[in-house]
Design a protein that fits this description.
Order of helices and strands: EEEHEEEEEEEEEEEE
Helix content: under 10%
Low-confidence stretches: none
Structural class: mainly beta
Number of strands: 15
Strand content: 35-45%
Shape: globular
């Protein structure tokens, strides 16, 4: 899908998310807002083009950990394994505990941005899993 120069997320679109592109269907963009190395907390604005979504994944932690999403722009989806997809719009907050298999991304017809916050914890790691196939991806 072609880039939409009219879409200007509240926290900036950032650069193409090339480091994690292998874990996404479609194009995403990453705009780091803080550095965990500098201040202990990592925040990044993630922008998804229409139809873009990340693979199923799990944030593991021995203690604490997980992820928080704060939706700032557009319309998207969040789904936990075994549950129905949930529509996300600006102002929504999703708390994802460590160990929960999930995915998130844009609606098929909308750009989408959220701030991703990696919750502090011990022994934290991410496990990237299978893509969300077109048959399972909500088209509404």
């Amino acid at each position: 899908m072609a880039e939409n120069d009219d879409f200007t997320p509240m926290f900036g679109k950032g650069a193409p998310n090339e480091a994690f592109a292998q874990y996404f269907i479609g194009n995403s963009y990453l705009n780091p807002l803080t550095s965990a190395a500098e201040c202990g907390v990592g925040l990044a604005n993630v922008t998804f083009e229409p139809g873009c979504r990340n693979n199923w994944h799990v944030h593991h932690a021995a203690k604490g950990g997980g992820q928080i999403l704060i939706v700032t722009d557009g319309r998207g989806w969040y789904q936990e394994w075994g549950k129905e997809p949930r529509v996300l719009t600006p102002g929504d907050v999703v708390v994802i505990p460590a160990g929960v298999k999930h995915w998130h991304g844009a609606a098929a017809d909308s750009w989408f941005s959220h701030i991703a916050f990696e919750a502090p914890g011990e022994g934290c790691s991410n496990e990237w899993l299978e893509p969300v196939d077109d048959a399972s991806y909500p088209q509404a």
